[in-house]
Amino acid sequence: MLTLATTVPGEPEIFASLQGEGPSLGRPSVFVRLSRCNLACHWCDTAYTWRFTGDNRPHRDGLAFDRGDNQLALAEAEVAARIAALGPDRLVITGGEPLLQGAALARLLDALAVLRPAGHVEIETNGTVAPHPALDPLVHQYNVSPKLAHSGNPAELALPAERLAAWAAEPRAFFKFVVATPDDLAEVRELARRHAFVSDRVFIMPEGTRPAILTERLRWLAPLVLAEGWRLTDRLHIHLYGDTRGT
């Protein structure tokens, strides 16, 4: 079984859209959003995947979500059938933290292969969890988003050195850092130096859930990112659809 987020109670968050972030920005994709996360970012825009009633981990909105309305368990074969019914052959598995369900994801991709070629498979991860050995050979791209100090997560949880070193050595991994202020870039710079990240695989993305905030931050980020030789990414889905589920 897979534990998924929902768009509305009882309806899993499985949908076709354009990839809004990172190296695949603008590509038609099928998205599967899983529930549960081992971190708790203050600014997380999918807190409905983890901050359920009784979870007191801090979040800037202070909202708590009903688990029954926002979480759904489905068999891997059912999830595969829903993916196969949608058009794009690029699959993006997001969360929450998808790699917490690595063994079930491997079964999902095996079930999907029976129905149609899985196509290009991306997993979006916070980088703290190693890929399951049955899943790893089935993945084409990892979008790794280590959480900086402004996320509110302790560094020992969010930035485990052994995992960052492993991702740095993984040719399928791209790094995506969420940045709110220029000071955050100093932390990215130090992590990139310490772990020898390839500059062309480092993406800087403004934090924000409103187009005006994203645009303002992109303007001051652009010259700073250019000077470092990194790459800049927008959040296309926010401009197109707003901060909404299933987009």
Automatic annotation (TrEMBL):
Q: Which GO terms describe its biological process?
A: tRNA queuosine(34) biosynthetic process
Lineage, top-rank taxon, reads Bacteria
Task: Please name the pathway.
Answer: Purine metabolism; 7-cyano-7-deazaguanine biosynthesis
Domain Radical SAM core, which positions?
24-243
- How does the cofactor bind to this protein, according to its record? Binds 1 S-adenosyl-L-methionine per subunit. Binds 1 [4Fe-4S] cluster. The cluster is coordinated with 3 cysteines and an exchangeable S-adenosyl-L-methionine.
Q: Which residues participate in substrate binding?
A: L18, Q19, G20, R33, T94
Q: What subunit structure does UniProt give?
A: Homodimer.
Q: Which family does it belong to?
A: Belongs to the radical SAM superfamily. 7-carboxy-7-deazaguanine synthase family.
Protein name (database record): 7-carboxy-7-deazaguanine synthase
Q: Which gene encodes it?
A: queE
